[in-house]
Amino acid sequence: MTLQLAGLDPAVDAPLFERLSAPEVLRRVVDAYAPDVALSCSFGGPGGLVLLDLLARQDLLDDVEVYFLDTGLLFDATHELRERLERRYGFETAAYVPEITVADQAARFGANLWERDPDACCALRKVGPNALALEGKRAWITGIRRDQSPRRAATSVIEWNQPLGLLKVAPLCGWTDADVWDYVDRRGVPYNRLHDAGYPSLGCNTVCTTRGASMETLRAGRWRGLAKTECGLHGSV
Ligand code: SF4
Predict the structure, then answer these.
(1) Boundaries of every domain in the chain
(2) Rounded to two decimals, what is the model's pTM?
(3) Helix boundaries (H) for 91-159
(4) Which of 20, 115, 157, 218 is most deeply buried (CB count within 10 A of its CB)?
Protein backbone atom coordinates (compact mmCIF):
# COMPACT_ATOMS: atom_id res chain seq x y z
CA MET A 1 0.00 0.00 0.00
CA THR A 2 1.46 3.37 -0.95
CA LEU A 3 0.73 6.94 0.00
CA GLN A 4 -0.61 9.15 -2.81
CA LEU A 5 1.59 12.25 -3.07
CA ALA A 6 1.58 15.19 -5.45
CA GLY A 7 3.34 14.61 -8.79
CA LEU A 8 6.99 15.33 -9.36
CA ASP A 9 8.27 18.31 -11.32
CA PRO A 10 11.33 17.35 -13.44
CA ALA A 11 12.40 21.02 -13.61
CA VAL A 12 12.72 21.04 -9.82
CA ASP A 13 13.24 17.40 -8.84
CA ALA A 14 15.55 16.08 -11.58
CA PRO A 15 18.86 16.98 -9.86
CA LEU A 16 17.80 15.14 -6.69
CA PHE A 17 16.66 12.07 -8.61
CA GLU A 18 20.03 11.87 -10.40
CA ARG A 19 21.60 11.27 -6.97
CA LEU A 20 19.12 8.68 -5.70
CA SER A 21 19.62 4.92 -5.91
CA ALA A 22 17.39 3.00 -8.30
CA PRO A 23 15.32 1.44 -5.46
CA GLU A 24 14.75 4.90 -3.95
CA VAL A 25 13.71 6.32 -7.34
CA LEU A 26 11.17 3.54 -7.72
CA ARG A 27 9.85 4.01 -4.19
CA ARG A 28 9.35 7.76 -4.64
CA VAL A 29 7.75 7.45 -8.07
CA VAL A 30 5.33 4.77 -6.93
CA ASP A 31 4.49 6.79 -3.81
CA ALA A 32 3.74 9.81 -5.98
CA TYR A 33 1.83 8.16 -8.83
CA ALA A 34 0.32 4.78 -7.88
CA PRO A 35 -1.90 3.41 -9.27
CA ASP A 36 -1.29 5.53 -12.40
CA VAL A 37 2.20 4.23 -13.00
CA ALA A 38 3.35 1.62 -15.51
CA LEU A 39 6.54 -0.34 -16.15
CA SER A 40 7.25 -1.31 -19.74
CA CYS A 41 9.14 -4.58 -19.96
CA SER A 42 10.22 -6.12 -23.25
CA PHE A 43 11.65 -9.29 -21.68
CA GLY A 44 14.30 -8.90 -24.36
CA GLY A 45 16.93 -7.14 -22.27
CA PRO A 46 18.11 -7.28 -18.66
CA GLY A 47 17.07 -3.78 -17.55
CA GLY A 48 13.36 -4.44 -17.20
CA LEU A 49 14.13 -7.60 -15.26
CA VAL A 50 16.22 -5.68 -12.74
CA LEU A 51 13.37 -3.20 -12.30
CA LEU A 52 10.89 -6.02 -11.75
CA ASP A 53 13.13 -7.49 -9.08
CA LEU A 54 13.71 -4.11 -7.40
CA LEU A 55 9.97 -3.45 -7.29
CA ALA A 56 9.23 -6.92 -5.93
CA ARG A 57 11.84 -6.58 -3.20
CA GLN A 58 10.15 -3.39 -1.99
CA ASP A 59 6.68 -4.94 -2.26
CA LEU A 60 5.71 -2.40 -4.91
CA LEU A 61 4.75 -4.65 -7.82
CA ASP A 62 1.04 -4.55 -6.97
CA ASP A 63 1.08 -0.75 -7.33
CA VAL A 64 2.51 -0.76 -10.87
CA GLU A 65 1.03 -2.01 -14.14
CA VAL A 66 3.68 -4.13 -15.84
CA TYR A 67 3.03 -4.28 -19.57
CA PHE A 68 4.65 -5.53 -22.75
CA LEU A 69 4.05 -4.89 -26.43
CA ASP A 70 3.08 -8.15 -28.07
CA THR A 71 3.94 -7.38 -31.68
CA GLY A 72 2.96 -10.88 -32.78
CA LEU A 73 6.57 -11.36 -33.86
CA LEU A 74 8.39 -11.95 -30.59
CA PHE A 75 10.72 -14.87 -29.95
CA ASP A 76 9.30 -17.89 -28.13
CA ALA A 77 12.08 -17.43 -25.58
CA THR A 78 10.71 -13.98 -24.77
CA HIS A 79 7.25 -15.32 -23.98
CA GLU A 80 8.77 -18.18 -21.97
CA LEU A 81 10.75 -15.72 -19.87
CA ARG A 82 7.68 -13.54 -19.24
CA GLU A 83 5.70 -16.53 -18.00
CA ARG A 84 8.56 -17.66 -15.79
CA LEU A 85 8.88 -14.22 -14.20
CA GLU A 86 5.12 -13.96 -13.66
CA ARG A 87 5.26 -17.21 -11.72
CA ARG A 88 8.32 -16.15 -9.73
CA TYR A 89 7.02 -12.74 -8.67
CA GLY A 90 3.29 -13.46 -8.68
CA PHE A 91 2.10 -10.79 -11.10
CA GLU A 92 0.38 -10.70 -14.49
CA THR A 93 1.75 -8.74 -17.42
CA ALA A 94 -0.70 -6.63 -19.41
CA ALA A 95 -0.29 -7.32 -23.14
CA TYR A 96 -0.91 -4.55 -25.65
CA VAL A 97 -1.32 -5.69 -29.23
CA PRO A 98 -1.41 -3.86 -32.57
CA GLU A 99 -4.76 -2.99 -34.13
CA ILE A 100 -3.99 -5.32 -37.03
CA THR A 101 -2.50 -8.80 -37.10
CA VAL A 102 0.71 -9.61 -38.93
CA ALA A 103 -1.37 -11.26 -41.64
CA ASP A 104 -3.62 -8.19 -42.01
CA GLN A 105 -0.56 -5.98 -42.17
CA ALA A 106 0.86 -8.12 -44.97
CA ALA A 107 -2.44 -7.94 -46.85
CA ARG A 108 -2.63 -4.16 -46.56
CA PHE A 109 1.02 -3.15 -46.90
CA GLY A 110 2.70 -6.17 -48.47
CA ALA A 111 4.72 -8.98 -46.91
CA ASN A 112 7.55 -8.23 -44.50
CA LEU A 113 6.91 -4.52 -44.11
CA TRP A 114 9.79 -4.50 -41.60
CA GLU A 115 12.23 -5.07 -44.47
CA ARG A 116 10.95 -2.15 -46.56
CA ASP A 117 9.69 0.38 -44.02
CA PRO A 118 10.60 -0.56 -40.45
CA ASP A 119 9.50 2.84 -39.13
CA ALA A 120 5.98 2.24 -40.41
CA CYS A 121 6.02 -1.30 -39.04
CA CYS A 122 7.21 -0.14 -35.61
CA ALA A 123 4.58 2.61 -35.62
CA LEU A 124 1.86 0.02 -36.16
CA ARG A 125 3.16 -2.73 -33.93
CA LYS A 126 4.93 -0.86 -31.12
CA VAL A 127 4.43 2.89 -30.94
CA GLY A 128 0.63 2.79 -31.25
CA PRO A 129 0.17 0.02 -28.68
CA ASN A 130 2.62 1.74 -26.32
CA ALA A 131 0.57 4.94 -26.41
CA LEU A 132 -2.51 2.86 -25.66
CA ALA A 133 -0.76 1.19 -22.73
CA LEU A 134 0.09 4.56 -21.24
CA GLU A 135 -3.30 6.19 -21.71
CA GLY A 136 -4.45 7.47 -18.32
CA LYS A 137 -1.05 6.83 -16.75
CA ARG A 138 0.92 9.65 -15.14
CA ALA A 139 4.32 7.97 -14.90
CA TRP A 140 6.14 5.52 -17.19
CA ILE A 141 9.09 3.51 -15.86
CA THR A 142 11.54 2.09 -18.41
CA GLY A 143 14.81 0.17 -18.27
CA ILE A 144 16.69 2.29 -20.81
CA ARG A 145 20.28 3.30 -20.04
CA ARG A 146 22.74 5.89 -21.26
CA ASP A 147 25.33 3.31 -22.30
CA GLN A 148 23.02 1.48 -24.71
CA SER A 149 23.49 3.84 -27.66
CA PRO A 150 24.56 7.40 -28.48
CA ARG A 151 20.87 8.26 -28.85
CA ARG A 152 20.24 7.29 -25.22
CA ALA A 153 23.33 8.99 -23.79
CA ALA A 154 21.36 12.05 -22.68
CA THR A 155 18.65 10.11 -20.82
CA SER A 156 17.64 11.59 -17.45
CA VAL A 157 16.32 9.68 -14.44
CA ILE A 158 13.11 11.69 -14.63
CA GLU A 159 11.92 13.83 -17.51
CA TRP A 160 8.65 15.09 -18.88
CA ASN A 161 7.54 13.21 -21.98
CA GLN A 162 5.65 15.75 -24.02
CA PRO A 163 4.08 13.45 -26.66
CA LEU A 164 2.56 11.17 -24.02
CA GLY A 165 1.95 13.85 -21.40
CA LEU A 166 3.50 11.98 -18.48
CA LEU A 167 6.63 11.61 -16.40
CA LYS A 168 9.17 9.24 -17.94
CA VAL A 169 11.38 7.50 -15.39
CA ALA A 170 14.64 5.66 -16.12
CA PRO A 171 15.97 4.49 -12.73
CA LEU A 172 18.84 2.55 -14.33
CA CYS A 173 19.95 5.19 -16.79
CA GLY A 174 23.30 5.64 -15.05
CA TRP A 175 23.97 1.91 -14.74
CA THR A 176 26.37 0.17 -17.11
CA ASP A 177 25.79 -3.10 -18.91
CA ALA A 178 28.15 -4.71 -16.39
CA ASP A 179 26.15 -3.26 -13.46
CA VAL A 180 22.92 -4.72 -14.79
CA TRP A 181 24.35 -8.17 -15.45
CA ASP A 182 26.10 -8.18 -12.09
CA TYR A 183 22.72 -7.54 -10.43
CA VAL A 184 21.04 -10.28 -12.48
CA ASP A 185 23.80 -12.74 -11.53
CA ARG A 186 23.88 -11.84 -7.82
CA ARG A 187 20.11 -11.98 -7.41
CA GLY A 188 19.58 -14.99 -9.65
CA VAL A 189 17.05 -13.12 -11.79
CA PRO A 190 15.87 -15.24 -14.76
CA TYR A 191 16.85 -13.73 -18.11
CA ASN A 192 16.19 -14.39 -21.80
CA ARG A 193 18.15 -17.48 -22.81
CA LEU A 194 18.91 -15.94 -26.20
CA HIS A 195 21.33 -13.52 -24.55
CA ASP A 196 23.60 -16.55 -24.09
CA ALA A 197 23.30 -17.22 -27.84
CA GLY A 198 24.83 -13.85 -28.70
CA TYR A 199 21.86 -11.48 -28.75
CA PRO A 200 22.53 -8.52 -26.44
CA SER A 201 19.14 -6.94 -27.23
CA LEU A 202 16.03 -8.76 -28.41
CA GLY A 203 13.07 -7.35 -30.26
CA CYS A 204 11.05 -9.03 -33.01
CA ASN A 205 12.07 -12.36 -34.49
CA THR A 206 12.69 -10.88 -37.94
CA VAL A 207 15.65 -9.24 -39.66
CA CYS A 208 15.22 -6.53 -37.01
CA THR A 209 17.09 -8.59 -34.41
CA THR A 210 20.51 -10.08 -35.10
CA ARG A 211 23.38 -11.31 -32.99
CA GLY A 212 25.82 -8.72 -31.72
CA ALA A 213 29.60 -8.70 -31.91
CA SER A 214 32.20 -7.48 -29.46
CA MET A 215 33.12 -3.80 -29.85
CA GLU A 216 29.61 -2.99 -31.06
CA THR A 217 27.14 -0.80 -29.19
CA LEU A 218 24.57 -2.79 -27.23
CA ARG A 219 21.80 -2.13 -29.73
CA ALA A 220 23.89 -2.62 -32.89
CA GLY A 221 22.15 -5.92 -33.57
CA ARG A 222 18.79 -4.18 -33.94
CA TRP A 223 17.83 -3.09 -37.50
CA ARG A 224 21.33 -4.00 -38.64
CA GLY A 225 22.48 -2.12 -41.73
CA LEU A 226 20.03 0.73 -41.19
CA ALA A 227 20.49 4.10 -39.49
CA LYS A 228 17.48 3.17 -37.35
CA THR A 229 18.35 2.28 -33.74
CA GLU A 230 15.02 2.94 -32.02
CA CYS A 231 11.54 1.58 -32.54
CA GLY A 232 10.10 5.00 -31.74
CA LEU A 233 9.24 4.48 -28.07
CA HIS A 234 12.33 6.37 -26.88
CA GLY A 235 12.89 8.70 -29.82
CA SER A 236 12.92 8.15 -33.52
CA VAL A 237 16.58 7.76 -34.54
S1 SF4 B 1 11.10 -4.38 -34.65
FE2 SF4 B 1 10.87 -4.85 -36.84
S3 SF4 B 1 9.22 -6.37 -37.01
FE4 SF4 B 1 9.14 -5.47 -34.93
S5 SF4 B 1 7.66 -3.83 -35.07
FE6 SF4 B 1 9.66 -2.89 -35.48
S7 SF4 B 1 10.01 -3.01 -37.71
FE8 SF4 B 1 8.26 -4.37 -37.19
Answers:
(1) 10-196
(2) 0.91
(3) 102-109, 113-116, 118-122, 128-133
(4) 157
